[in-house]
Each structure stands twice: as structure tokens, then as C-alpha cells.
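note to self — DONT lose this again. spent like an hour looking for the file last time. sequence + predicted structure for the chain T wanted, 715 res
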Amino acid sequence: MPVKPVLIAVAVSGLAFYALGRYGHDTASREPAQPIIQPAQAQAPQQSPQSLPAPAANEIAQAASPDRPATPPSPAPKVDETALRYFATQGDTRRYEAELARLRALYPEWKPSTDPASQGQAGDPELERMWRLFAEGKHGEIRAAIVQRGSADPSWRAPADLIAQLDAAEARQRLVNASNARQWEQVIRLGTETPALLTCASVDALWRVAEAFVQTGKPERARDAYAYVLTNCTNPAERAGTMQKALATLPEALVDALLAQERQNEFASIRDEIARRHIGKAADDPTQKATAAEIQRIEALANAATTPDDAILLGFYTLHHDEPAKAATWFQTALARNGGAKAAEGAVLALGATRKYQEAETLGAQWLEAGAANRKAYLDVITALLTQEPPPRLDRTVVERIARAVGQDKYAPGAGALGWYAYNAGQTAPAGTWFETALSWDRNYEPAAYGLALVRERQRDQAGLRALVSEWGSRSQRIAEVLNPRRARPAATTERPVEIRDVPRPEAAAEPIGQRPAPTVRTRRGSPVEREEMAATGRAAAPRPVGGNCGNGSSGAAALQRGWCLLNLKRPVAAAQAFEAARRSGNAEVAADAATGLTYAKIQQGLTSEAAAVAGATNLPPARRRELATLLLSERFYAQYEAKDFNGALLTLSERRRHAPETTDLMLMRGWAYYNLGRYDDAGRIFETLYKVNRSSEALSGITAIRDATRLNRY
């Protein structure tokens, strides 16, 4: 009777596992090495089996030869159905199907019972118990039971099927343990020695062997293991899982060969993932491009989805391939789907790339605390926003928000951008402070050094300009050219009819000390009012700068004098460094004076909280401490007033009164605080008192505003 094709397939597969697995351990003597699995032979027995060992190939050829005389039919084999019957009675469908497939492969002529659960009820109870232990994975107890029964009944022999399955189960467990321990050579050896493991009944073992081949540098053999599953196994979940593992571990060229074994579009999700992978690589590297088909595939998925991931992926791809408008649309879609920080980062970058800087700033400000990437996107876009020509019209709250973010990150390009924004607005002193701040954060930031050179030129600080050119001239041609009298001068931008708000000092929203306008509400603001800017004690010791040169002595006293001199020149960053040096000199009197100067320098930079910390941490004479407390309370008052916290501002003024009398400008602002709270009687008394004292136009403006508000001024 001819041998059935399925028997040939099983024989070839088993021999291939054994022979080719051996080649995997003997590569020095046999090259090229053969894969452990050859799925093509299992499907196509007509193929020439040259890759098999000669004896095995001869046996297969003789078995399949049509010229060989027919052998007499052999008696029907005795099939041990104990395991099959046990799994059926237990309702263990998975194990039942696996056992049924195994018995059919071993005994092609065998016909299973239509109701195996009802068969053999009078069977061997002890053997049934062994199979139950097998189902529970208690292999050691089975071995003990076999030995015990053999001792009690020497004529009894354990069924070969039970022994074979027990051996295979134990080998499978050893293989799993070796795989979990990443003992890859051991995994390959166990798979080679136990080819019965590497079948569709144990796809997990095939996956583990494939992983071992990948880890030992044999991706082609891993491909063969995956191909065996795709060629011979039918479980949809296992086939899809095989492709997922192949995609994660194999080179793309080997994956493409496996995709050819697809049945009825079952690998659509794998093809989606490959397209995403290509688009993601191209998004990170603009020199690469995804195909039009891949882009269309992911676009269709993104449009049909309710999740943001594909939209974000397409957003970054189009952003980095010169399609920022399309990228902005994708990122907005992702944001609408709760795309979170990554979508916001992309949207800010895309809006910036389309020069919609103010929209980008508004969006980026909402995500500043989401992560470092979001802060970087925001800082990059505000740098571009502030350096536009002509300067944009920005609300004061926006500029203050930008200044806080720049100060928190000590972002030199952002500080430089604020410097250029102030310079273009004609605010030279704040511009110089921002440029100095940028250089204190990054000594090699040339744009800030160039801006500072222009500021010193405009301030006619020739000594400071020459020092800067001496430091930078060899590194920057344009800085070296600043001293060239024949160069083209930068145009003064203050003549342009552009409304630009005051630029805050570094890291705060406060205006430069001594430059805050009187806060009238309904009338034109008056000229700047001098406040308690510098204490007489500190300024008396400050030398008069000669040509902008404040000296360079190294002693504590010299550093102290240099600090006061720099503070007079409105260079608070450099002044703060000099005062810090003076504080470290060891002289208690010099250190106290330096702490006072450092407090003023911090205030001039807008760092009120740091100024308060310096003043509080230093042992100062009572008079000096009152002086600084008065100045710091004034700063707090101005901050509260500008934040429209008028009640808080009035409380701060009352606290300040305990340290020093109220100045005229503060009385005027107290009146406006009353006015803004609707306390017109209190405000009127303040304005009338001031008008009687000095006939102040600001006080008269206040009186007029109250009359308008109470409808007493009728014409």
C-alpha cells in the first residue's frame, strides 16, 4: 500500500529538524550551515531533498518510489487513546485537539471515536491518574508513579505514548527555562535534540528557537523557523503573532519574504506597522522618504481613527519634509484627540515654521510644564517671535511670560532675543541688561555680544566697547567692525510708528528701576519718578567712572567699588558679580556693603525674591536693614499694583510706612489704588492733598478722573 503524502511530510520535517539542527552545532565542518527548519519540504515532497543527510534522503526516495513493489498491508497499530479520552472528559479542548492531531500524524489509518469521553470507562484508573497529573504539569509525580507501579507489577510497562509526551513536556520546560535565562546555544541544542517540540502543537517553542537564532547572529535560520509556522500552522492568532515577532527581530528583507505567505489579507496590521516604521524613520531623518503608498495607507488609518498616534506621526513627517501647513493640521487633529504633550510640541513647531509665531507662543505657553521638549519648542518659537523685523506688537503679559520662561531655563538665545526686542524698541538700558544676562549664561553666545557692543556704542561707553571688541574681535568680524567709523550704522528703530510695550528685566516683570511711569489711569502718564533706587551710603563710595571704566582691582574693597560703579552704569549683571567677589573677601564691613549692593543689583535685574533672600541672609546694621526693607516693600507694592491686586498693594504700603515716610510718587499711586477699588472719597483726599502741596498735574488728573466717575464734572 503506498505511503500517504502526509506521512512523507512528517518524516521529512522530523529528519530536517534533526539533521539541520546538527549543522547548527557543527558549522566549522559543514558550510554553509543549513537551517533548522525547512518548511518548503513539508509542503512539497516532490522537491529534491539534497539538503538532508544521505541515508535519510535514500529512505525517503525509496519510500516514495513508484517502482518499488507494494508491501503487504500491515496490521492496524494499537493506538493509546488514554490521553485523548482524558482530555475529552476534562473538556480541555486545546489539549484534546493537539493530541488528536498528533495521533492522526502518527497513525494515518486510525479513526477516532465519535464520543471519546464515553469510551474506556472501565479502563486503567491508575493510568488515568497519570494522565491527569500530566495535564496538571506534575511531571515529577508521574515519574514517581511509573516507578512505583513498575515495582509493584514488574510485568507492567508505561505506555510509549505517555513516556514520549512526558519526555517532550520535560524537554519543552528545559527549553523555556534556557530561553528565559537567555542561554541561546542551549535553546538551539534542545530544539535540535527534540524535534517533536518544533511543531504546530508548540508554536511557542518555535518562537523561542527563532529568537535564539537571532541572538546568536543567524537571522536566516530564525526566518526558517517563522516560515515553518506560516507554511504548516493554521491558527490565526499564532500566525499573526509569528509575523509580529519576525517584524520585531528580523531585517526587513527577510520579513518581506515571510509576508509573501499571507492568506486572505491576514497580515494587514503587519503591513500597517511596516508603513509606520518607514514614516517614523523618515520623520527623524529628513534625508529619507516614505513611499506614496505608505503615506496614503497611514493617512487613511489616521482619518478613520479616534486616537492621536497616527496623526502625530504624519505631523512630524510632513513638518520635517517642508510641509508645515499640513503638519499643523495633523497636530491640531491630534490635539483634538487628546494627543497631549507630543501633539502640542509638534503644533508649536509647525505654527512657528509657518511664521504664526504669536499663535505658537499662545499654545506653547499652555504646555510649558509638560516636559523638556515642550519647553524647548516654546523657547525656540519665542526667539523667532522677538527677533522679527519690524518688531511685533506684544501685550505686556506676553512679554512677561516669555521673560519668566527664559529666566527659568537660563536660555541664552531667548535672553538675547529679549535684548534685541528691547533694543529695537529704543530701550537701550534693558537691552544691555538682557544681552549681559545671555552672556552670563553662555559666554560664547556671539549674537548677545554683538548686541551688547551696539548698546555700549549707543551709550557712548567707549571703554566698555573697546573691552568687548578686544575679547570678541578675533571671533566675530561684525563685532570688530563696530569700532570702524566708516561702517554703516544700524538705524535707530525708535522712529518707527510701532507701539512696543516696555520690556521687562531678566527673569521678572518689573521695569528698570527709576524708569517706572506714574500709574495714572485716565490721563497721559507722567515722566519717570525716581524712587529709593540707591542708598546714599552705598553710592557715596562708588567711584565716578572714567570713560565707562570701573577698574579691575582684585581686593575686596576694589571689587566693592567696581560693583557700585557698574551699578551706576546700569550694568546690574556685572555689578552683581563684583559684589559677590567683594562678599567673599573676608572683611565683615566690606561684606555688609557688598550685600547691600548685591541686593540693589538683584532688584535692578528684576530679581526681587533673590534680593530679599540676600538681604535676609546678611548681618546688616539696623539702619541699612530698614533701608533695604523699605526698597523691597516698594518693589512688592509695584508688582501688586501692576497685577491689579490693589488691596494687597495698599496693605504693602501700610507696612512700608513703618520703615520710612511715603514718597510723593507712592502717595499718588495710593490714590489710584483707591480709585480702582471705587473708594473715590479716599482717593479724592489723596489727590487734593498732593495738588495743594505741589500743584501736581498728575494729582489734578486724579481729581478730574474722580469727578468724571461720580458725574460731578458736567459741561
